[in-house]
Specification:
With 590 residues, the protein is mostly helical. It is built from 20 helices and 14 strands. The protein has 3 domains: 165 residues, no CATH class; 167 residues, Serine Threonine Protein Phosphatase 5, Tetratricopeptide repeat, CATH 1.25.40.390; 132 residues, no CATH class. Helix content is 38%, strand content 8%. It has a two-stranded antiparallel sheet with strand order 1-6. A two-stranded antiparallel ribbon has the order 2-3. Strands 4-12 form a two-stranded antiparallel sheet. It is globular. This is Carbohydrate-binding protein. Keywords: Cell outer membrane, Membrane, Signal.
């Protein structure tokens, strides 16, 4: 009996000594406390906003292209490959934005609730300006995350209306009712527009130091030049700005006006065109601002090396921080250059590049010769895609992708070889050396938004709203944009581009041309999958490649695409449907 009592006492003492095991004490968990928001410690509340920045999804380098007709991958564990092969479900969704975006929105809502209480600096007027800026950033980021949510999860439910996602504008706590229904797509779009309007009201167009107090907008008065520069100057380049708010509005409007979503919103093609024009006209008007080096922004060594912190080159509207690395090259160089050859462009994409004279290769006027398939082509082809006989790497090594070649770069030679007869060239720095004896890094950055995207957004929307040469009140047309883009690429420059001129009077032909130019200009930047779905075109085109034997090319089927028609809309996560009865799933998803 005494032994039992001793054991019981020892157990009680042990449990009381280890109470944290049952009820863990809160450690290193700082609560929001307005009384502690001192000028010397404003980093803490701003860190709440930074959590939102850190969660920004980026299309660039996600390579969801391998789930489309533009590319495949030799990485058999790739989530997008599995998705394209029929394993895309509501509980296995590589495109899911639900958890990340709503977590970001929670932090942003917290920021909006606390921002007015914070003493950002000892100077009260500068602190007021900081409050205005941070509010603007927060509204803008919340709109951006809502855009990503509807892009990934809006769709048709059991009814006839297109639903968006639940709209959360308040901080959610332990007593919050999380069982919210999905808002309509129109309600989501109006919330995006509202937040972006607030962001643009509060933010400068760009973060720059000003020459003098006369340039301070009235909404920031009273303020001195020194005060303005402290709150809105060059030190804050890279943060959400008024210009970025305009660009996000243009992106969201294009999505809403597109065939897959247009019946669920009042947003029109004219709205989408005008919103895109509002971005482009801030630089002095229309096509004159198309960056001359917009095709090699990722490899312009001198420009990239000279970038100041937060500064953007002419092609880039918004980007992340740059870093020195060789990650992309390690993943995508051919095996002979010590790479893994992961992203393999398809013959489908290669065939989408026209001849240099502007004609598609299927047009009898093009002069295309299947026996010499890369001769006389659009210069973007060999700039973006490594074809057989092309060069790569710091020593301009000739790459042999033939099926009967004598290196591992050939078709299906080893696990890291190409599956299509092509390797990725776009986005890669060819001055990266992967040889273990002399490996080096180079500077890279990821764009959040490129100006070429906004130009293409405008061209698509303007053509739908007003036809190929209509301009609304904007002074430039879809035709003007496509002509500028093709001229920059070196297409149709020697013959006046008769194919484009023919499309000038045909809206349907111009639509096809604009979509193709978008495919080429934005390839491997994460747009193709979303574009196919919002256009309601086929996701199931078989990915093709080329097998070259005895110098004779033949087209081969590489990978089928197993998508169902309802998959133009993505699913609501299955776990959310199980937890919340008010949520309804999009049609077709289980």
């Amino acid at each position: 009996m005494n032994k039992i009592i001793i054991i019981l006492l020892a157990s009680i003492l042990m449990l009381s000594a280890c109470s944290d095991l049952l009820e863990p004490a809160i450690e290193n968990n700082r609560k929001l406390d307005p009384a502690a928001y001192l000028p010397t410690d404003s980093r803490f509340p701003y860190g709440v906003l930074l959590n939102g920045y850190n969660r920004i999804p980026t299309n660039s380098w996600s390579f969801n292209d391998v789930a489309t007709d533009d590319a495949v991958t030799n990485d058999q564990a790739n989530a997008f490959l599995k998705m394209a092969n029929g394993q895309w479900t509501a509980s296995n969704n590589p495109l899911n934005q639900w958890t990340n975006a709503y977590a970001a929105i929670q932090y942003l809502n917290i920021m909006l609730g606390e921002v007015d209480k914070v003493k950002w600096t000892a100077d009260e007027n500068v602190s007021r300006l900081f409050t205005l800026r941070i509010k603007g950033e927060t509204y803008g980021l919340r709109a951006l995350f809502m855009y990503h949510l509807i892009q990934a999860h809006a769709g048709l439910s059991g009814g006839s209306s297109i639903l968006g996602v639940p709209v959360n504008l308040e901080v959610q706590g332990v007593n919050t009712d999380f069982n919210k229904p999905r808002a309509t797509l129109e309600e989501c779009m109006q919330q995006i527009y509202s937040d972006l309007d607030k962001a643009e009201e509060l933010l400068p167009l760009d973060y720059e130091n000003i020459p003098g107090a006369a340039q301070i907008p009235a909404r920031y008065s009273p303020a001195t030049k020194v005060e303005y520069d402290r709150a809105f100057g060059v030190a804050f380049r890279g943060l959400f700005s008024g210009r970025i708010a305009r660009a996000v509005r243009a992106k969201a409007a294009l999505l809403a006006a597109s065939p897959a979503f247009s019946e669920g919103t009042t947003t029109t093609w004219a709205d989408a065109a005008n919103y895109a024009a509002a971005v482009l006209q801030t630089e002095g008007g229309g096509c004159k601002t198309l960056a001359a080096n917009g095709l090699n922004w990722y490899s312009d060594a001198g420009e990239i090396a000279g970038l100041a912190d937060g500064a953007n080159p002419p092609e880039i509207l918004w980007r992340n921080n740059y870093g020195d690395n060789r990650t992309l090259e390690q993943a995508n160089y051919p095996p002979s250059l010590f790479g893994s050859g992961r992203i393999n462009p398809t013959q489908n994409l290669v065939d989408a590049f026209p001849m240099a004279n502007g004609y598609p290769i299927a047009d009898p006027a093009s002069g295309y010769d299947p026996a010499t398939p890369y001769a006389g082509r659009d210069p973007r082809l060999t700039r973006f895609i490594l074809v057989n006989g092309g060069t790569a790497g710091p020593n301009s090594t000739v790459i042999n992708t033939t099926a009967d070649g004598n290196t591992n770069d050939g078709l299906n030679k080893v696990e890291t070889s190409t599956r299509t007869g092509y390797y990725l060239r776009k986005l890669l720095r060819q001055d990266v050396n992967l040889n273990p004896t002399s490996a080096n890094n180079q500077r890279h950055y990821k764009p959040h938004i490129r100006y070429t995207e906004i130009f293409l957004n405008y061209a698509e929307a303007a053509n739908e709203a007003w036809g190929p040469t209509g301009a609304g009140s904007n002074g430039f047309s879809a035709y003007d944009v496509i002509k500028a883009i093709r001229t920059r690429a070196g297409v149709g420059t020697s013959n006046g581009d008769p194919y484009l001129e023919a499309a000038k009077s045909n809206q349907e032909q111009m639509r096809a041309l604009i979509r193709n130019e978008r495919r080429l200009e934005l390839c491997f930047e994460g747009f193709r999958f979303w574009d196919i779905r919002r256009w309601k075109t086929s996701l199931t085109e078989t990915a093709k490649g080329v097998s070259i034997r005895n110098n004779v090319p033949s087209v081969i089927n590489v990978e089928e695409r197993r998508f169902q028609p309802f998959m133009i809309y993505g699913p609501v996560p299955y776990g959310e449907i199980l937890k919340f009865s008010a949520l309804v799933q999009n049609q077709g998803w289980q």
